[in-house]
Amino acid sequence: MNMQNARPMSVKGPDGQTLTLADLPSPGISRWVTRRKAEVVAAVQGGLLTRESACERYNLTDEEYDAWERLYARHGSKGLRTTRLQQYRR
Prior knowledge:
Layout: E1 11-12, E2 18-19, H1 34-46, H2 51-58, H3 62-75, H4 85-89
Antiparallel strand pairs: 1-2
């Protein structure tokens, strides 16, 4: 088996709990709450999903995913709240 292509079966989620593909939001989700966004970012950062597969699975643009990742890195899950978007984008 080529270990370069191996993907982890689980990663650490935003709340510290184990996160697997089965735990991720369903494809076609229409209501993006903070927790779901953070789970997708954690899955990509941990190697559970590629960025491309996450964008395809959840119909996200590169810009949309970039914004999630940037806000999560700077402010944690709270940065992903849509009600606080203007405050965190400064």
